[in-house]
Amino acid sequence: QVQLVESGGGSVQAGGSLRLSCEASGRTFSNLAINWSRQAPGKEREYVATITQRNATYYRDSVKGRFTISRDNAKNTVYLQMNSLKPEDTAVYYCESMGSWGQGTQVTVSS
After folding, report:
1. Region 2-12: what's the mean pLDDT?
2. How far is CA 110 from CA 2, 18, 65, in A?
3. What is the DSSP string of the chain?
4. Contact (Cβ atoms closer than 8 angstroms) between residue 80 and residue 68
């Protein structure tokens, strides 16, 4: 079982930046692929980004060029750097691995 804890959410104006963190425990971190998803009010949860064990990265189209996912295996942490934020990025952001989810962190972007 993997335990995941997100942090770094907050409120920013459009065009601003935030960096989310996802700290994992319970498994050998370097063996984990980590996914970020998000859920806006009244909407279904949607995929955002992935980083694999070999540092391959994938993104949903709407965040390409604005979000960057990275990992620090020494800190058991994956980051989601979010730049040029838009109001439509407002959501609770979750990290997930091996079917386990964190509690989420709120990101609010005002226009």
Report:
1. 98
2. 33, 13, 20
3. --EEEEE--EEEETT--EEEEEEEESS-GGG--EEEEEE-TTS--EEEEEE-TT--EEE-GGGTTTEEEEEEGGGTEEEEEE-S--GGG-EEEEEEETTEE---EEEEEE-
4. yes
d(CA 34, CA 90): 21
Q: What is the pLDDT at residue 74?
A: 96
Q: Quick check: 37 and 46 in contact, CB under 8 A?
A: yes
Over range 9-16, report the average pLDDT: 98
Look at residues 72, 106, 81 and name the one whose alpha carbon lies nearest to residue 18.
Answer: 81
- Identify the band that residue 55 occupies on the pLDDT scale cut at 50, 70 and 90: very high
As given in the structure block, the two tokens for residue 82 are: 């979010």
